[in-house]
Known about the structure:
alpha/beta, 7-stranded mixed sheet
Amino acid sequence: MRAVTYHEYGDPSVLRVEEVPEPHAGPGEVRIRVEAASVNPIDVKLRAGYLKEMMPLQFPKIPGRDAAGVVDEVGDGVAGVAVGDRVFGNSAVGTTAEYAVLYEWAPVPDAWTMEQAAAVGVAAETAVRVLNELKVGAGSTLLVEGASGGVGSALVQFAVARGATVIGTAGEGNQEYLRSLGATPTTYGPGLADRVSALAPAGVDAVADVAGAGSVPDLVKIAPTPAAVVSIADPTAQQHGTRLSLAPDVATPASLVEAAELGAAGAYVPHIEATYPLDRIAEAHARSETGHARGKLVITI
Length: 301
């Protein structure tokens, strides 16, 4: 099959398209004929070697953790899905290829395109996990640092669907976008505590940092306690008494099912900034590295 691979750590130029052996569904897995896969910040960090001490790679590596496509193999012990079903989900072995094996999945709602569905897996799992860790629900006030990216956009919409009030930070050009998602927007950077205080005089109940821009010390001053701050992107978070939330080692398909249900109801609309063909994945990685993408970047297969 055709797949994007890289054989060494480096900048986006190490990415190439080549022929590799097809994967096959094992027990508890399904294989899909991939129609689209997304680019996540974790893909960029892994490729660049930023996480090689914590998460060393075996080369060649296929990038990508989430995708959408049509099931063409069903592994032993799998029920509730059949060959020909349209699904989206997450993989442990790379998704930017003609075929990918998923360890968790959910049906694609009719309201989404396959490109939108491809953008959901990692973002939904992360958003649900963080909201659950912060116990965000009806009546909560949540601050999302870095709210206009793929995970941030999902966090905002999931929190609003739960009945929370959301304040989101983003650059000047994304203020109206956050408002369209149901958040009250503000800019990030110096003076954030004062801006948040003006928007939420009674204070916030929880803070989610998805930007990883080194702002955790400032976010601690805004939250009621350091434990009310969860970061998914700042490895120093625990040094400040806050929590670092990492993806679980076991499948959590409930988050994908929740995403699909919200999508079917029109309460969660994955936003795609741009799509790229397989042979232009280096451009997508370069765009992701800027940290300014609105929503998700998607590779079409």
